[in-house]
Structure formats: structure tokens, C-alpha cells
Amino acid sequence: MANSSIQLEPSSPSMNPHHRSPEYNALLLAGPRLGPLKQAHARLVVAGHGSSLPLTTKLATLAVAAGAASYAHLLAISHPAPDSFLFCTLTRAAAHRGFPAAALTFYRSLLTAALPFSSFAFTAVAKACADLSALRVGMAVHAHAILLGFGSDRFVQTALVVLYSKCGQLPVARKLFDAIRDRSVVAWNAMISGYEQNGLAERAIEVYKKMQMAGEVPDSATFVATLSACAQAGALDLGREVERRIGSERMDMSVFLGAALVNMYVRCGLVNKAREWFDKLQERNVVTWTSMIAGYGMHGHGHEAIKLFHLMRREGPPPNDVTFVAVLSACAHAGLVSEGRGAFATMKSVYGLVPRAEHYCCMVDMYGRAGLLDDAMQFIHDSIPGEPGPEVWTAMLGACKMHKNFNLGVEVAERLIALEPENPSHHVLLSNIYALSGKMNHVEKVRNTIIKRRLKKQIGYSLIEIGGIAHLFRMGEKSHPQTRDIYQYLEELIHRITDAGYVPETDSVLHELEEEEREFALRYHGEKLAVAFGLMMSAGSTAPIRIIKNLRICGDCHLAIKYMSAVENREIMVRDKHRFHHFKDGKCSCQEYW
Questions:
Q1: Which of 94, 112, 153, 577 could disulfide-link to 99, CB 3.0 to 4.6 Å?
Q2: Residue span of the signal peptide, if any (predicted)?
């Protein structure tokens, strides 16, 4: 390739003669406004400065800032002798002004003109590819950077870490991150947020701790990403540590940092603490409001969610489509059918928002949980345009199972399997429906289909954090170093709750399991092992036990943990796939509405 390279951002000494010229001042006066810029351009041409490269560069850069990237591109390619500085500047301006497609256009113009590249041009175009999730183009840019000798430039490497993280290519991102010798806070932030945004919260926390050990000073973006990881992982101890550090360093409480703190406390089970932070924030954006509303919904406080939603409508920013998902979900989990109908109508009539699959799913879930199966089916047929997606039928199937409408359940399950034949969850639910209705011959047929197609169910697990260390338990888990003590404690606990009246709900899980798993079907579920471990390790404490479950908690574990909270006189919180369950004195906050 003919292109040469420049290691540092090029300067343009020829700008100086024009710095105080009337033409340059006219550009400054026009600012990032297209109309005045075009007038200033006309003055340049009339004054004979139409070919001035420094003035063209300034004009085109301001045009990008004005949102007229195509006009800026026309100015650049029309110049008789454009230089590297012109295209590199425009590439960076477009990338940082939120015009990633235009940044790629300027990059290609630089390539076509066979002009020298700089590190800041590659940094900008890598950012543009990240914003577009354009992995293939980004990989070509990466190869080009290596070819021109920029592969070891830490700014380029950092931008590439962001690119590969946003595109889900975390092993590549981590390899690049590890190769950066003198990592900036931006590089650390890119890796932490990359893991967090791809659902790998534990890895994000690991990088944050490594950053602390390296002595790097975090900034607000570091704390936002780390708090989001803590929310995802339920890492309350670290979340509190980050909160203390924000206070000790007197960091400005930005709207993003405030929203991250609210979300962390909501997701870690302390909804009242989240509300304290929410009320203290001087600035709240739509994310902050939505997080708090969703938090109330997850914890079963539907009336509080609706109350806050009404306050948002009066005093806060306009709710967006995600806000309405939070509101409708809160109504579904609290049985607030009338309020849910009203919110759904408001979404369309007042705010002009078009319902998405998530909104339809929440409405079906709301009707279904309330036992209004006919209303749910009517809503599906009358209100959802086109063919309903699998998420809608999944909500409907869950309602059929909950309210033991087996005939409708079979019909819905068969629709689901037709839509997603390779999804094992649908086959398992159909098997359950058949089993609960006593049609064991049909159960066998579904089992054979699962085996024949080699479909594998998602493996359930439960997490508990003790002393800042996460402990994971699956059904029948025996890899923990304290396995013998945990099992002994659980056996004693089962005897105690049995004496208190606990009777296993075998129907809730028995038919979801393969033959060889049935020995552990009830007693050794991950939730029970995690609770037993938590109680064993905190004997004498009154602090709540906090468990995170990746799937929906089963009926038997829900019943057993209610009894455990009573006999141990401890509050036990379980965050499952859909909501929080606060067990205390033998009762659950969900009031059996889950």
C-alpha cells in the first residue's frame, strides 16, 4: 500500500496566517450553524480564499459539528489539494459528534487519496465501527493499523478494545487489553464495561480489582461500569465499597453515576436504599426514573411503582418505551390489571409510543397471572399485529400451567414448538403440562423428542456472596470445599421445617427432570444448598441472606424457604430470573403472586 504513516497528530502551521483574518473570524462567528457557514463559505470564495486548505479544514469541521457531514465531505473532496490533516480531522470530528457512518466515509476518502494516516485517525474510525457494531469493517481497520505500524499504539489499542467488546468479541478484546503496556483509565473502563455489557459481571469485577491493585485512579465512568457489574452479579459488598469511595473522593454525582447507584441497590435487594439515593439526586434522567420504577416492580411493590410513574409524568422527563415495560411488568407482578390497562392505553394515546414485543408480553403476563386467561387470549388475537412472537406465547403458557388450564396449555405449547422447535424450554414446559394432566404417554413422547434432537436445558444455579466472595451452587452440587458440612446442615434444616409442617411439592419439579436426576429433585436444589450455606456461615447474625438464581425459583424451593425463614428467624432474599422474593416469618413478599 502506498500510504505512509504519521505517529502523532499532524499540526497545520499554515493555519497561523489566517488566525486573525476576517475570513477566519467569519467562520468562528458562524459557528456550528449550517446557514451562516454557507454564507461564510461564499465570502471565502469571493475573497479568493476558496482554495485555502486551513480555512477549508475549519469550515468543514464546523459543518460536521452542525450535523452536515455530507456538506463537509463535499468541501473536502472538492479541494484541489486535500491533505491528511483535513481528512483525519473530519474523521475524528464525525466519530465524536455521533456520525459514525460519516467517519467511515472520511476514512475511506483518506484511503483513496493515498494520504498518510495518524494514530488519532485510526482511534476515531475504530470508535465509529464500535458505535455501528461493524465488526468486519473494524477488523479490516485493525489490520490496516497493524500494517501501517500502529498496532502497538496504546490509543489505537484502547479504541480496538472498545470495538471488540461492543461486538461481543471479548477474548480478542482481552488479548488487546493485556498487550497495552501503559494502560489509561479509558482502557480499564473499556474492559470493565465490555464484560459488564456482555453479561460477564464477575469478569468485570475482576478487572476492576486488578485496576485497584495496579494503582490506577478510577474516574466516574469506572464507577458507573463497576456499579452496573455489581448490580448484575448482586455484589452488594463491592457496590457499597464503591459508594464509599465516591463519597470519600468527593466525586461529582453525575446523572449517570446516580442512576448506577439506584440500579445497584435495586438489583441487590435494598429497594429502600435505592429510593434514598433517588430522592437525593439533584438531576434524574429517564434511566434513573425507570430503574426506580422497575425496582419497585421487581420487589412486588406495584402500588409504589404506579405512584412513582404518576410522579414522573408530573415532574420528570417523558417516559420512554423502556419505562412502560417497567410499569407494565410491575402491574403484572402485583396483579394491578386496571392500572396496567391504563398505562398501556396512555403509552399510545398520550406519548405516541408504538408497543413492542416486550409490552405485549407484559400485558399477556399480567392477564395470565391474574387468571384472566380468556382476556389474555383475546388480547393476543385483537391487539397484537401480525403473528405473536414466542415470548408472548411463553407468557401465556406459564399462565396456563399456573392456573392448571391444561387443554389450552397444550395448544399454546404446540404453537411455541412450531415457532422455535430447537428451544428445549418449550419441550420441557409441554412435558410438564402433560404430566400435570396425567397424560404420561405424551410425556414419554416429548422426552424422546428431546433426546432425539439432543436438546439441552439451561442449567440452573444459585449464587450467594459471603465476605465478598461468590459461592455457586447447582443441583446436587458437591464441588464446594465445605460440601459435607453444607449437606449435614441442610439435612437438619429439612427435618426442622418438616416438623414445622413443610411437605415437599413434588409436582413442581418432578417432571422437569431426567430419571437419574430425581434423587436430588427436591432436597438438593441449588437454592436450598445456597440458603443452608448462608445460614451456616452466618450463625448468630441477623443480617438477611441474599441469593441470586439464574432461573425462576421452583414451587418447592419457594415453599421450603418460607419455612426456613420462620424456623431460623432470618430474612432470606432470592432474586430469580423475574423478580425478588423477600421471605420473612414464613411469608413471602410476592404473596404467592409469581
A1: 94
A2: none
Distance in angstroms (rounded) separating the CA atoms of residues 152 and 168: 22
In tens, the pLDDT along 461-494 reads: 999 988 888 899 998 888 999 999 999 999 999 9
Q: Which of 393, 388, 339, 342 is nearest to 368 (CA)?
A: 393
DSSP state of 553: P
Distance spanning both ends of the chain, measured CA to CA: 63
Within 10 A of 323 (CB to CB), how many other CB atoms are there?
26
**Separation CA 269–CA 547 (nearest Å):** 10
Quick one: which of 238, 245, 285, 288 has its CA closest to 263?
Answer: 288
Query: What pTM value is reported for the model?
Result: 0.82
**Distance from C-alpha of 424 to C-alpha of 324, rounded to nearest angstrom:** 30
Residue 6 DSSP one-character state: E
Q: Could you give the CA distance from residue 522 to residue 554 in angstroms, rounded to a whole number? A: 9
In sequence order, what are the residues at sequence separation of 6 or more whose Cβ sits closer than 8 angstroms to the Cβ of residue 349? none
CA–CA gap between residue 62 and residue 471 (Å, rounded): 55
Give the tens place of pLDDT for each residue, 238-274.
999 999 999 888 888 899 999 999 999 999 999 999 9
All cell numbers assigned to 435: 404430566
Three-state SS annotation for 95-156: HHCCCHHHHHHHHHHHHHCCCCEEHHHHHHHHHHHHHHCCHHHHHHHHHHHHHCCCCCCHHH
**33 phi, psi to nearest 5 deg:** -130, 120
Above 60 in pLDDT, residue 15?
A: no
Report the interhelical angle of 255-267 vs 220-233 (nearest 10°): 20
Please name every residue paired with 178 in a beta bridge, in sequence order, or none if there are none.
none
**Residue 34 and residue 71: Cα distance in Å, rounded?**
9
CB 581 within 8 A of CB 574: yes
d(CA 396, CA 361): 9
Distance of alpha carbon 206 from alpha carbon 319, whole angstroms: 35
Q: Measuring CA to CA, how many Å separate 55 from each of 14, 213, 381? A: 10, 48, 62
